[in-house]
Design a protein that fits this description.
It is built from 19 helices and 15 strands. It is α/β, with parallel strands linked by helices and about 450 residues long. It has a domain of about 260 residues: 3-Layer(aba) Sandwich (Rossmann fold). A 7-stranded mixed β-sheet has the order 1-4-5-15-10-11-14, with helices on both faces. The chain has a 4-stranded parallel β-sheet with strand order 8-7-6-9, sandwiched between helices. The longest helix has 20 residues. It binds pyridoxal-5'-phosphate (PLP). The site of pyridoxal-5'-phosphate (PLP) has 20 residues, from helix 6, helix 13 and helix 17.
């Protein structure tokens, strides 16, 4: 019998997260204080994050126990299924085997609750009453709203204004889970008021919304901040994805030649790929490919430099690939891939040639997503569609070369809240957009001068 869905038992769920920092060939560069340029000390981060998270951010331990309370909640949807995309393989006529790890079965519809639940848990444990955060496409805001509701925390979500207007049902979902949702830029914060003064019609950006949420947390004693991607602890929480996928492939006696993930801030890509990179560091041959939009080509066209994490320069500076903290991305539909920077861990691995990256235009990714949906049934989130299309391209390359290849990609979420984007695609209204080189050069003028 040919297996389609490879399932793990709840008992086989990972009980520890994998921390890639223990195994990286070179230690990661420290984040720097936005005002002084000195390496950030734990105390600097204390207004924003609980101590347990700050410790995880810099931990060198290879394995970190997942708390029982977090495992309990993970069990609501984990372990997630690994699928063999037999129908897609057939449609492509490829000799390649295509597997995908599906994170859309979580209540919020993406991988993001894997870290939201962990972060809410540590905040609750340290007596925090409210979490403030930003959301672009609404995926992270929903995930944190869900997690806060499960742990009895209040939640305030600054939602990038274009998304707030484009995706009313994401907002409804957050409100059902009890969150307060505010379009950003808002008049609620100093950072928001400044942006509105300069540009009353600002569509907002993740960088701006991060500034608002961080300011909200820093100015309220009972409130902390939670970030849905980019930071080391977030990517570590997401490694449950790759650890499960490895165990699932083992059940069918397979191992990937290439692991593919859509890359915005790097969390689902890192979560899936890092456990395989552990094998690569130990000498095994495996490729990892991060896929981003041509409209926000952080890895493929950005600079590897220290930059601020947000527009108002409240967040630490990190060494990463960046398009500049003033970057305001075009309104493409993969809202979750519009951040100006990228995970410092993913950035460093790319800089050192240990992973690959490619950028894809939006019409191609929707074409891939529709082909996928017509053969596999699941409607991918536009973000996830980047991984889908890259996997299709790998499979077609294998066909061209007439060689077998085992492809594993992350289907990070479903697209049920993104049907407006599919509508636009089906109506032929989507245009490809390549972020202009001049604008990249311009934004890079504003990079902080850091000597290292
Ligand atoms: C947020 C999101 C992404 C991009 O974020 P990463 O941190 O790069 O994973 C990708 N896919 C989905 C479904 C998302 O919600």
């Amino acid at each position: 019998m040919s297996v389609t869905k490879i399932l793990l038992d709840e008992k086989q769920m990972p009980r520890q997260w994998y921390n890639i920092m223990a195994d990286m060939p070179n230690p990661p560069a420290p984040p720097l204080h936005p005002a002084t340029g000195e390496p950030v000390k734990p105390d600097d981060l204390a207004p924003l994050f609980p101590m347990a998270i700050i410790e995880q951010e810099v931990s060198q331990e290879r394995w970190i126990d997942i708390p029982e309370e977090v495992l309990d909640i993970y069990r609501l949807w984990r372990p997630t299924p690994l699928y063999r995309a037999r129908r897609l393989e057939k449609a492509l006529g490829t000799p390649a085997k295509i597997y995908y790890k599906y994170e859309g079965v979580s209540p919020a519809g993406s991988h993001k609750p894997n870290t939201a639940v962990a972060q809410a848990y540590y905040n609750k444990k340290e007596g925090v009453k409210r979490l403030a955060t930003e959301t672009g496409a609404g995926q992270w805001g929903s995930a944190l709203s869900l997690a806060c509701s499960l742990f009895g925390l209040e939640c305030t979500v600054y939602m990038v204004k274009v998304s707030y207007e484009q995706k009313p049902y994401r907002r409804s979902l957050m409100q059902v889970w009890g969150a307060e949702v505010i379009p950003s830029p808002s008049t609620r914060t100093e950072a928001g008021r400044k942006i509105l003064e300069a540009d009353p019609d600002s569509p907002g950006s993740l960088g701006i919304a991060i500034s608002e949420a961080a300011e909200d947390a820093a100015t309220h004693e009972d409130t902390k901040y939670a970030l849905g991607s980019v930071l080391n602890h977030v990517l570590m929480h997401q490694t449950v994805i790759g650890l499960e996928a490895k165990a699932q492939l083992e059940l069918v006696g397979d191992y990937p030649d290439v692991v593919i993930g859509a890359c915005g801030g790097g969390s689902n890509f890192g979560g899936l790929a890092f456990p395989f990179l552990a094998d690569k560091f130990a000498g095994k041959e495996v490729r990892a490919l991060a896929v981003e939009p041509t409209a926000c080509p952080t890895l493929t066209k950005g600079h590897y430099a220290y930059d601020y994490g947000d527009t108002a320069k409240l967040a630490p500076m990190m060494l990463m690939y960046t398009l500049g903290h003033t970057f305001v991305p075009p309104g493409i539909h993969a809202g979750g891939l519009r951040y100006h920077g990228d995970s410092p861990l993913v950035s460093q691995l790319y800089h050192e040639g240990l992973i690959e990256a490619k950028a894809l235009p939006q019409r191609a990714i929707f074409q891939g997503a529709v082909l996928f949906a017509q053969n596999e049934g699941i409607l991918p989130a536009p973000e996830s569609a980047h991984a889908v299309q890259a996997a299709i391209e790998e499979a077609l390359e294998a066909k061209e070369a007439g060689e077998p290849r085992t492809i594993l990609f992350g289907l990070s979420g479903h697209g049920h809240f993104d049907l407006a984007a599919y509508d636009a695609y089906l109506a032929g209204k989507l245009e490809d957009y390549e972020y202009p080189e001049e604008l990249i050069q311009e934004a890079l003028q504003d990079l902080p001068q850091v000597s290292r």
